[in-house]
Amino acid sequence: MDRALAAREYAGHLTDADLTLLALAGPGAAPGAGSWLRGDPAALLRLLEDPGTFGTVLGGGLGEGAGGGSRGWAVQASPFLIFALLVQRATTELASAAHVPERTGLRQRVPLFDAPALRDFLADTARRLFLAELLASFTRVASGRYRVRVAGRTRTRRFSELDPVRLAGLLDAVPDAERPGVYRRLGDVSLFLTGVFPDYVTSRAFGPVDAGRLLRAAGLPGPQRERLAAGPAIDLLEHLGARWYRTACELAPVRTARLAVAGDVADRFRQARRVLNHLADRYLLAAGQSWFSAPGS
What we know:
Elements: H1 3-13, H2 16-24, H3 41-49, H4 51-58, H5 79-94, E1 100-105, E2 108-112, H6 115-122, H7 125-137, E3 143-150, E4 153-160, H8 164-168, H9 179-196, H10 198-204, H11 208-217, H12 222-230, H13 233-251, H14 257-266, H15 269-284
Antiparallel strand pairs: 1-2, 3-4
């Protein structure tokens, strides 16, 4: 996805209220509608990328890290605009970072000197858009029931977008034409959980049965399944998330620009996950923020 197309995609997500907020951040800002930005995606993208827009739209009350409070959130802004600005904020912060904390266990962190790789990930407009869309998509989580035949009998099963094991069960029930969409969402939930709720993933540690179901759904050979099932849950979901994105790309009848970005993220899954870890630590899960329901709640 080139920069011009990404700019149009940003414009398609933003509400009229979002555009008005962004227009106020521009040069010569004056009260009034910002609908003109929808017809000038390039100008819109320049405003989103301007470091000053973050403070203008979200206010000065947004804290640096946990405990910053929520006074600075602009209530008129849509979740997508807030996440887009937060991803851009991460781009600014990591531009000068020497190292970024990495998890080595539950609530344990060590400095990892891979900031250049994270900067490279965020350098691409389409990948920044991908992360903003991903976060916005999980502010409301789909769940429900479906029917599947097992041993000649029809059974009812439940699924939730925050439960990769149950979500993978849909692969047995949907038509072939819908399987790429399920694989794509499996990639999304793997990235979201490891990025935003890594401590939950670490503490949950899939049991042998659930890990086996996920690995079989990914079509991995036996020896590789055994190795991944015995390792950390984050490593398991990292591997499976990347594989599911690639499978979605392979099975889709048409490789759209959006799907091509998912394939690109599959090759950089760890970098994407670590950018989200940074955002979660500093903003998404800071005290006073409640953008996402905790998995299993």
